[in-house]
UniProtKB/TrEMBL annotation:
The gene is glk. HAMAP family: Glucokinase. GO terms for cellular component: cytosol. Its EC number is 2.7.1.2. One of its GO terms (molecular function) is glucokinase activity. This is Glucokinase. It is found in: Cytoplasm.
Length: 339
């Protein structure tokens, strides 16, 4: 028997997390069932979200969802929502008709990652370095993937409030002597180096190429996975340095976010890349850079940092919200469409 949640979303609920590269979906039959998770879909394989959902999900189950909550990589504004790093435009009104839904909520994908942090336990994360979570304190999430997603999670009045934003686009600058050698070779975006120019898949290649050019070498590795694979295997000097610098730059930006949100509840690294380079992030560079924040180094040393290892963390955040929306302060104004 379908039941209404306090947010008015009616079960069965389709939950989805659409990144620049991959889309992940699951069905939640009721407030108690575990989500039924479907295989990951590359976004480039389908022309639209309706086609992806119909072919890969709805044709493969007898359950007809009545509502949907979807997290997308990009700001949610208006009735046409383009994904920042992928070709799909999400049109919730089209989803209602094409998929026979009654209710659709669209939120930012890092808002979903923030919801996940409040719902996953020790088994879904691995700590890097010292520090302990201060219960009910604010948290920050950073996720290098196709882009760099950033969000905060603030606790007030017994409610977790995700704070989505475009923090991946902050300016970053050189600091060490080696940074100054590399910076002239980094590819800027419209004249500047934003965090996302360094801390995402193409950012890894950007750093790697700059490392090679700074030594007057030809870069022979072309994609991020090749760079991190060679770095982890210790088989290419430029790749090793690129991943070491990536860890340092990620540590610096993570430390900045910790200070901005006073994230005594922890800083969490989500997204596909953090999991894949976990052994590199456990080396000293990441944590040293995170703590190297005079005059606040003592504070930063107490803040724990984690890699989120849960394979579908954003979906687990969306499932937690769907089950008990009153635990979370998710604003749905302008982001909810009904028949
Ligand atoms: N082994 C690897 N090492 C480094 N980068 C990788 C590796 N495998 C894939 N990538 C890069 O990770 C990015 C995809 O990240 P992720 O798996 O988090 O996808 P996503 O959820 O679609 O991303 P986003 O939500 O940021 O749009 C791509 O840029 C890809 O080239």
């Amino acid at each position: 028997m379908p039941t209404d949640t306090e947010s008015g979303l009616t079960f069965p609920i389709l939950i989805g997390d659409i990144g620049g590269t991959n889309a992940r979906f699951a069905l939640l039959l009721d407030a108690f069932a575990e989500p039924k998770i479907f295989p990951i879909i590359p976004t480039t394989s389908y022309a639209s979200i309706e086609e992806a959902l119909q072919t890969s999900i709805l044709d493969k189950t007898s359950v007809q969802p009545r509502s949907a909550i979807i997290a997308v990589a990009g700001p949610v504004q208006g009735d046409d929502i383009p994904l920042t790093n992928a070709g799909w435009i999400i049109r919730p009104k089209d989803m209602l008709t094409a998929l026979s839904l009654e209710d659709v909520i669209i939120i930012n994908d890092f808002e979903a990652q923030a919801l996940a942090i409040a719902s996953i336990g020790d088994e879904g994360r691995e700590q890097i370095g010292p520090g302990a979570i201060l219960e009910s304190a604010s948290c920050a999430v950073l996720g290098p993937g196709t882009g760099l997603g950033v969000a905060g999670l603030v606790h007030a009045q017994h409610t977790w409030f995700p704070v989505p934003g475009e923090g991946g686009h902050i300016d970053v600058g050189p600091r060490t002597e080696r940074d100054y050698q590399i910076w002239p070779f980094l590819e800027p975006i419209e004249g500047r180096i934003s965090a996302e120019q360094l801390l995402c898949g193409r950012g890894i290649v950007n750093i790697y190429r700059a490392v090679c050019f700074s030594k007057a070498q030809d870069p022979h590795l072309a994609d991020p996975a090749a760079v991190t694979t060679h770095a982890l295997a210790g088989s290419d000097a430029a790749a090793i340095e690129a991943v070491s610098l990536f860890s340092t730059y990620l540590g610096r930006v993570a430390g900045d976010m910790a200070m901005i949100f006073m994230a005594r509840g922890g800083v969490f690294l989500a997204g596909g890349i953090s999991q894949k380079i976990l052994p590199a992030l456990k080396k000293p560079e990441f944590r040293q850079a995170f703590e190297d924040k005079a005059p606040h180094s003592a504070l930063l040393k107490t803040i724990p940092t984690f890699v989120v290892t849960h394979p579908t963390a954003a979906l687990s955040g969306l499932a937690a919200y769907s089950r008990t929306p009153s635990r979370f302060g998710v604003a749905t104004e302008g982001r909810r469409w009904r028949t």
